[in-house]
C-alpha cells in the first residue's frame, strides 16, 4: 500500500485558517498574522506527518520550522527569552532528540548541539563558574 502524505492537507487547512483570521477585522489572533506563524504552520504539518504518518524523518524539519516560528513570536514578548544563536542551536538539539526517540539515530548530534547551545546561552556566566572551581 502506498504511503499517504498528510503534509499537503495540513498545509492547506493551516493556510486557510491563517488567511481567514487575517481577513477578520476584530480577531483576537491579529498579532499572529505574521510570517513566523506561517513557519509554525509548516512545521506542525511536518510534525503531524512525522508522528501520525509514521514518517519519522519529518520530525526533524518539523521541530526546526515550528521552533524557529515560536522563537520569533516569543523573542519580542519576553525579555528572558534569548535572542541569539544559542536559542537556535537549542531548537536544533531538540529536533535531534525527538528524532532519536523514534528512529534511534542522531543522539550524538543532539548532545553536541545541546552542549554548544549551553555554552552560547551561558557564555557570560562560564568564567565566573570556572573561577570558583579553580580557587
Structural summary, described in words:
By secondary structure, the chain is mostly helical. The chain folds into two domains: 1-78, no CATH class; 82-135. It is built from six helices and no strands. The chain has helices spanning 7-23, 35-51, 59-75, 85-103, 107-121, 126-134. Helix 2 (35-51) runs antiparallel to helix 3 (59-75). The termini are far apart. The mean pLDDT is 85. InterPro entries: LiaI-LiaF-like_TM1 (IPR043726). Keywords: Membrane, Transmembrane, Transmembrane helix. It holds the Pfam family LiaI-LiaF-like_TM1.
Short description:
The protein is mostly helical and 135 residues long. The protein has six helices and no strands. It folds into two domains: 78 residues, no CATH class; 54 residues.
Amino acid at each position: 500500500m502506498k504511503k499517504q502524505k498528510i503534509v499537503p492537507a495540513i498545509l492547506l487547512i493551516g493556510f486557510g485558517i491563517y488567511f481567514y483570521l487575517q481577513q477578520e477585522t476584530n480577531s483576537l489572533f491579529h498579532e499572529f498574522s505574521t510570517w513566523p506563524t506561517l513557519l509554525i504552520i509548516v512545521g506542525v504539518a511536518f510534525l503531524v506527518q512525522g508522528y501520525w504518518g509514521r514518517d519519522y524523518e519529518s520530525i526533524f524539519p518539523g521541530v526546526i520550522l515550528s521552533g524557529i516560528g515560536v522563537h520569533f513570536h516569543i523573542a519580542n514578548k519576553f525579555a528572558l527569552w534569548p535572542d541569539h544563536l544559542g536559542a537556535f542551536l537549542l531548537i536544533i538539539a531538540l529536533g535531534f532528540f525527538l528524532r532519536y526517540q523514534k528512529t534511534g539515530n542522531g543522539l550524538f548530534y543532539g548532545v553536541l548541539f545541546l552542549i554548544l547551545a549551553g555554552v552560547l546561552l551561558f557564555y557570560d556566566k562560564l568564567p565566573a563558574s570556572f573561577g570558583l572551581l579553580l580557587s
